[in-house]
Amino acid sequence: MLHRTRYFVIASLLVLVVGLGTGLVAYYVGFPGGALPNDLPVQLTFVPSDAAVVAYADVHQLMASDLRQQLRERFPASGQREFAAHTGIDIERDVDSVVGFLSGSATDRQVPQGLAVIRGRFDRQRIEALLNEHGGHEEPYSHTTIIVAGGGADVPESFGAAFLGEDVFGIGHVDQLRAAIDRKAAGDGATTNRELMQRIRGVNGRSAWVVGRFDALVASGHLPARTLADIPAITWLSGSLRIDSTLHLTVQADTRDEQAANDLRGLVTGVLAVGKLQRAANPTLGDLAKSIVLGGSGATVTLSFDASPRLLESIHPPRTPEAPVQTP
Amino acid sequence: MTTQNPRTTTRLTTATMRIFDLSLGQMLWSRRSVFLAIVVAGPVLLAAGIRVVVTISGRGLPMINGSPVTGGAVFGLLVWLLYIRFIVPVLGVFYGTSLIADEVDDKTITYLFTRPISRAAVFLGKFVAYLTCTALLILPSIVLVYFIVVPLGGGSIGAGFPSLVADLGMLIVGLIAYGALFGLVGTRLRRPLVVGLIFIFGWEPGVLLFPGYLKQATIAYYLQALVPQAMPADESVVGGILQVFNEVPSVWASLATLAVLTAAALILAARAVQNREFVLDQ
Questions:
Q1: Alpha carbon B167 to its chain's center
Q2: Would the CA dihedral through B155, B159, B165, B166 be positive or negative?
Q3: Helix ranges restricted to H, A91-164
Q4: What's the pLDDT score for residue A73?
Q5: Least CB-CB distance to B24: which of A1, A13, A204?
Q6: What are the tens digits of pLDDT across the range A214-224?
């Protein structure tokens, strides 16, 4: 065999072996946090691998959507103004995307600790000055400055905020902020949880999504025991929405097994049938039930529906100014 | 009448490996391999282009029926349309039909046939060289395409790994089957290249579009059963075309059929080389 033939064979086999080896490692271990694929939100590196609920919103896309423009007048943005007053962040102008999560350790009706990790363009000095003005004090932690709330009337003491990166701002429980800083450094964020990432990949690319462990919801005690008894064994719940001139919503439930999925489908079919029967009495409910499509296969159940502005209007009618009282 | 001395006749496997060693270098550095390099570089460049466009645009992959297309689906589409339906058959035709024909055209077949080795070993050695040469070029190409495309749209390198392995296996099966068939064509027919091109670009796509049993007389029909990626179930033109190929046999039936076809083609081709009298143009 010629030298150049030998070199070619070695080079070709090297590409093959390195590629297959990397794939094999990724298959068994998953990618560490540092190797997060470009398409996934970078904020996932701050999310704990045992998070009970993870949610994402492409704020820029949601704000620019036709539907948002139509609904803007109907839903006044008072919360936005309040948030801007406290933090100096204009959600509409400064924020690109938000990832929020609730920690997975909350049980027995504890209030779960959460954190919102915002990506955007921030005026760092202005925001820090504003937070300090509201009674916050600076606390250095692992090369990061956390601004801890002073404990005013409307802000709890455990509340804090910090710049977690050049364009990443974290806001939420101080303990979660500290943990997020450690997590990013250690690279053991949500990306190491294969089950969670599998669900996130399933909804990633939508305008907004939420993925949650059903057992964490149950453990928090926020669902009535009677309701739980009627619901077949669900393991994961995820929801996603795409928004243009219409709202396209999809909810997916992963169940323990195929039998549980069939039971859940039966339950949902029954609920939808009742909704359709109500059409005469409540046309909005009837229209809503009619637009819902039940699907899924195996141990997965999906519900999807498109909500047009007309349907949303019928669910939440616009406020009409009260007619002046006619006085004789 | 002459009889072959068993002591001087090298065993078939050893002889096959010697011919393989000799032929691999010849095949790799031939003009035909320039064409092969261009063909296998095409999908890599296309995948890189898709990656660059998606990354620069920042809008991700397009949506089908409200669901975002994943990198895995794009990879499946590239494997199906470029590799299985084009590259593998074309390489099978170009290399398979020329295994013996090139030696005849170059008038060098005499040097091989006058060696104390079986003529069948000459064919089999060249067939193994073809398989190695094409596999060494195609398999790294598909691995590169996988790593470029699959992470798009939130796809997971790890989750899609089993399908990559299955794809590589299927491509090897395809190279073996097409190579053996066109190796037989090359040893039996006068214009093997024309016959091969008519088969892969006329017969196979044609009969696959029609219902009935004719599609069982193609290799693509059995190969498509080994495609691990689910075909996109949308109402687009591409989806509609791909749905045409949805009627497939089981994996084991396909593997068994391809194994029988390959073995029969190799045996018949080896016998043809063994018995045929090759007349060199003066």
A1: 12
A2: negative
A3: 91-94, 124-133
A4: 62
A5: A1
A6: 877 777 666 66
